[in-house]
Sequence to fold (348 residues):
Amino acid sequence: MSFEFYLRLIGMVVFSIAGWRLGLILGGNEPSSFPYVVVLSLAGAALGLLTTPWITIRPYRSLWRKLRQMPAQQLFAAIIGLALGLVVAALLALPLSLLPSPLGQVLPVIAALAFGYLGVAIMVMRQAELFSLLGGRWPTRASLGPADERMILLDTSVIIDGRIADISKTGFLTGTLVVPRFVLGELQHIADSPDAVRRARGRRGLEMLNRLQKESVVPVRIADLDVEDVYEVDDKLIMLAKRHRCPIMTNDYNLNRVAELQGITVLNVNELANAVRSVFLPGETMAVRIIQEGKEPGQGVGYLDDGTMVVVENGKRYLNRTIEVVVTKALQTSAGRMIFASPTGEAP
Fold:
């Protein structure tokens, strides 16, 4: 049984006793007070059983989770703001306590709560400006050192894809490529899969990660980052990206769209590949190998080195042959770029 269950039992007993005492008070401690005692004791027991975790351990866990996620500089600013707010409230406590009752008893407490909250809010919102007025420089992500510079979170799909290893050598990426421990765990799980295809993908991902660590010109870190109470890898990545305000690099279409809807920057390798593909204009010629039949009668289909599909009219009879074609039309679709062409001797 969990700790929360025992806490509910304790709360049930405490609230039941409180209901019993309240029943005695309302009934005047007379024999006729028995119905009050029974009803209020049962009501207190039910109330304690239902609400005890919500007024004890759950607020504590929520506060502890927020403190763990809060950056150190923000936590420091909040503590300073709370201290300053309580100092101001203490200075006002004496004159406020001289007011007629009940204001003299209530207003000092309200002032402590209000100025404490106000101090925390002001310091957290304006921490950089206020610290700079004191002649210092507030530590930002760029000034905290290599471990805390701009991060790029890597998804499982982009590691297995492998092109990130080539991109990282070009110098276009800046910052630190971060692989959370749970992403590495997912790669290991895929590599141990009984399915041969998944096992091959997982092993390829581990090999690419090893290559990335050896050849990348930007730092690559395996980080012990995690999100409590979240179990899906994609959800963990989104929460981490929000927490650290950093982009996610992925090839996963669903993760891409969900992250964009939540305002997270996504670096998609497929979109990058589409952006840098060669542009072919109508009338240009190219050599392409026809490897399969097209959807329409007589069509042949081939692919360029970058994966661009080339649909060749009347190309079926050239199956498994390399021919020269003339571009007739080029289309950009959600799946990538598609080129329509005709054999050189048959171009209109």
Observations:
- The chain has four domains: 3-60, 70-133, 146-274, 285-346.
- DSSP finds 13 helices and ten strands in the chain.
